[in-house]
Write a structure and sequence with these properties.
Strand content: 5-15%
Strand order of the largest sheet: 1-2
Order of helices and strands: HEEHHHHHHHH
Oligomer: single chain
Number of helices: 9
Helix content: 40-55%
Radius of gyration: 28 Å
Number of domains: 2
CATH architecture of the largest domain: Orthogonal Bundle
Number of strands: 2
CATH topology of the largest domain: Arc Repressor Mutant, subunit A
Distance between the termini: 76 Å
CATH class of the largest domain: Mainly Alpha
Shape: elongated
Largest sheet: 2 strands, antiparallel
Length: 162
Amino acid sequence: MNWLLDYTTKRTISSAKIRLPVYTRFVRQRLVIMVGQAPYGIKTDERITSRMLMEARPKVRKPSPLDVALKYAEVLNEPSIVSKNQVAGRFGVSRARVCQMFKLLALDQSIIPHLTSIKDIDEHNFWTERKLRSIALLEHKDEQLAEFNRLRREVCREMALV
């Protein structure tokens, strides 16, 4: 009995070709074939290494902790805001967090303009809240300047190596 008598079944496709972009990369210690375009626009026919991914990753400018502290201070100076608790409520953070950020404003007045004027992404991201807070906790302004200059030389050395 021949079941292919109908003309529509004679035209049935027996195979199909689908083109999918793929790339290979190491995940832990195994070579894995990944479907899709290579990340970050990497153009290569070879396997993608972690180093290639790290070098091709776009640099992101993180929010400056000093800018956040200045925003908090600006809101606190508004006539309708009378407490740090209200500032915290407006930004969705705790009152303790607002107090931590206000401690950054204890930096020497010659340091703040330098930090707010940084254009380079790597140098900007170097100045984390942790580093700035350690400088701000120093009592004397000359100690703050000395520590700031030491860290500034360190960031210049790091950027020269890259």
